[in-house]
Amino acid sequence: MTRPLRVVAVSGGLQSPSKSAGLAQHLLDLIADQVSCLPHLVDLGLIAPQLTGSVWRTQVPASVEQALASAEQADVLVVVSPVFRGSYTGLFKHFFDLIEQEALFDTPVLLASNGGSERHALVIDHQLRPLFSFFQARTLPLGVYATDKDFVGRRLSDESVIARARLAVQRALPLLELTQHSISSNAERPLAV
Question: Domain 5-188 has what CATH class?
Answer without folding.
Answer: alpha beta
